[in-house]
Each structure stands twice: as structure tokens, then as C-alpha cells.
Amino acid sequence: MRVQVIDAICGSGKTTWMFNHIRNNKEKKWIFVSPYLDEVGDGKTKGRIQTELPELKFRAPSSSPTKQASFLRLVENCCNIAITHRLFMDFTPEIAQAIAEKGYELVIDETIDLISFYEGINGDDVKTLIKAQMILVDDKGKLAWNNTDWMNYKGRDSDIKNLCDLGCLYLYGDDVLIQRIPPTCLQACNSCTVLTYMFEGSLMQAWMKLNNIEYEYSYPKELLDEDTIKEKVRENLFIIRPSKVILDLQEGRERTIDTAFSAGWYSRATVSTINDIKKSIEKTLKTYMHKGDTFWTTFKDYKDALKGKGYTRRKKVPWLKELRDPFVPKNMRASNEYKDCCNCIYTINVFPHVSIKNHLLSFGVALDDDKIALSELIQFIFRGSIREYQEMSVLILSNRMRELLKEWINA
């Protein structure tokens, strides 16, 4: 299997190039994987790929009886198939075998986090399952269900059993579970093309290293070059200096606090500090940023506390059926919903989850904190009007994140 990574800046035309490539290779069978339903459709409504490639007749799995069963039927019928990242992560060995038998080409639009912190169980229950020897741990931390004594288990932790049987779960420490998607489905395809930017700053690249999957970079001549796009970004992106209140929160006694506005920092912040941040955002937006629509993000636990005037009201826009929420999840990628928004408010400081970082390090795979942070930041700001090369103001609270963006723009 050949893995090709098209690593090109947002706005370079990766997806358009890929669609043309698929159109020129109609004789092959394709699976297209995207983060969002509006790209792939839901079985009832068309997505972008069905609209732009009608002659390829891409099908999206239905939910009857299940998405997985519907996907298998489509594979058996040799259909071209469009699915979400979420469904790809739920594939089973049975699906991998069916894909291999039919000989599919795989396209993944934006990297998938195939290593994640498993949140479906609390730490005490993990300890209980281990103590009861319902799950067994090998010397690498990999979990296996005790099918000798608990083969027919159908209880509360059935999901854990299923993931253990698939070889997905690893123990970090004594109560944290790391979920690693097996490489079987990717390896079952004839080829895999990944469309992304800053692949080196992604968990998917770390996952490939972990699974000894080789890949090569490719940059089609039809794509816009990075220098041309960066020049347009430099001309139209206005990085707003935060207020003294925000800057002072990052000044320690002897040095700047690089972790300010990280998830851990917010967990220790007082209610008064959170209110000061909100008031500062409101004032900066009103006084120094563009007049127009705004999109913003923070960690989900602080969304309600940081909601303020001028950047939280839902609005009707022509290209969406429902009112648009100006709040955007911090890791959103490949969405055009906010392409008219001329203000971006970025309240977070990105670091990889420490348990995932240390788990990977124990297998000899190191993560680069700054590359991961910059990759996520760039993907986020390109949701706004800068993707159309229109003027956009961006307020980034973290000194670290703001400097990473400046260095990237000027590189």
C-alpha cells in the first residue's frame, strides 16, 4: 500500500485537485473520508462530493440498520463511498477484509486523530476492571479482555470489551485509557492519499510512525504555492495586541508564563479572572477590531463563562439552514461556514494531552508541542474571511500562540 501526503497550505486547492484526480480515474473504486457531513452527505441529502462529482455516484452509508452494516453493503456492491472521520474510526476487521477484497483507493481529507484519550470510563472503574481481572494488561500497557472467564459479558462495560477485542486500548498510569485505532483499514486499501497542512504537527503522523507506516510527500503543480498564499495573508490579517489585563496575566515574577490560557491554566483561574478576560475581549472587539461578524473559541468547559457582548449571538446566513453559532470548536477543520467572518477571537493555548504525549514517548515517538499548536491555530483562523483573502482581525490571548503565528507568517 502506498501512502501519499498532499501537504499544502489552506486555500491552495487540495480538495479541488483531488476531485479532478478522482474524475480522471473513474475506473478505480474510491472511499472519500471527510470531517463533516456536508462534505460527504448523509444518505438522504447530498454533500459536496456528490454535487461536484455526480458522474462518480458517491454513496453515503445510511443509519439502517447501522452505518457499519450499510457501509459493508456499499462495499459489496463496489460503490464509490463517502464517509466521515467518525465512521472510519469505527471500522472493524470485517470491514477491512471487505475493502481489501474489492480493492479500494482511500482519500482522507484532513488528518484524523487516530490516537486519543478514551473518555468512556472513569479512572475508578478502570482500576476495578483490572483488579477483578476482567481486563488484562501486557508489558506494553495493551489491554485484553479476559475472554476465558468473561467471554459472554454483556454488562455496562461492553464497549470496553469490544475495544479490547479490537486491540484498541492501552493503559497509561494506573487509570487512564489511550485509544489507538488499528491500521488494518488503512492498510487494506490499494493506496491512501491524505490532504492536509503541517502533517508533521499531527497525531496522525505520530500514529503512522507508531505503526511503521511509510509515507511520501507530493505537491501537485496545479496547487497554489505557499509563498503566494502567505503574502495574501500578510496583507489582510491584522493581529490585534491584547489589553494590558491579558498581558499581565502572562507575566510571572521572573519570566513570561508560557502555559497561560492552556486547559490547566483555566482550571486554576478564579471566577474574577475569567470575568476580567471576558470584559477585555468585549472592549478589544468593540474598540480595535473590524465591524462585522465574529467567530471565537475556547475550551468547552469555559464556553458559557466567557460568552460576552458582540461575539455570541446566533445569526442567519444564506448558506445554512439553521442559525449560525459564532462559537466554533477549537479543532474544527475544513468548514466554510464562517467564510464571511472578519473577526476571530482565540482564547486558548494548545498543548497535546500529557497522557497521550507520554504514551507515545514510551514507544519512541515524540510530539512537537509547537508544531501541534501552530497547526491547530492555522486551521482555525482559516475558517474565517482570511480564507477568501479578505481582511480579518484576529485576537489571540496567549503570547505563545500569537508569536507562533507571527513567526509562521513571516517565515
What would you note in describing this structure?
- By secondary structure, the chain is an alpha/beta fold.
- Helix content is 38%, strand content 16%.
- The chain has 19 helices and 15 strands.
- It has helices spanning 14-23, 37-40, 48-52, 67-76, 85-89, 93-102, 123-131, 147-150, 158-165, 184-187, 203-210, 226-236, 244-248, 263-268, 271-288, 303-306, 354-362, 369-381, 399-410; strands at 2-7, 29-34, 81-84, 104-109, 115-117, 135-137, 143-145, 169-172, 176-180, 191-196, 216-218, 237-240, 294-297, 343-346, 392-396.
- A 6-stranded parallel sheet has the order 3-2-4-10-1-11, with helices on both faces. Strands 12-15-14-13 form a 4-stranded parallel sheet. Strands 5-9-8 form a 3-stranded antiparallel sheet.
- The chain is globular.
- The two termini are 35 Å apart.
In short, what is this structure?
The chain is α/β, with parallel strands linked by helices and 411 residues long.
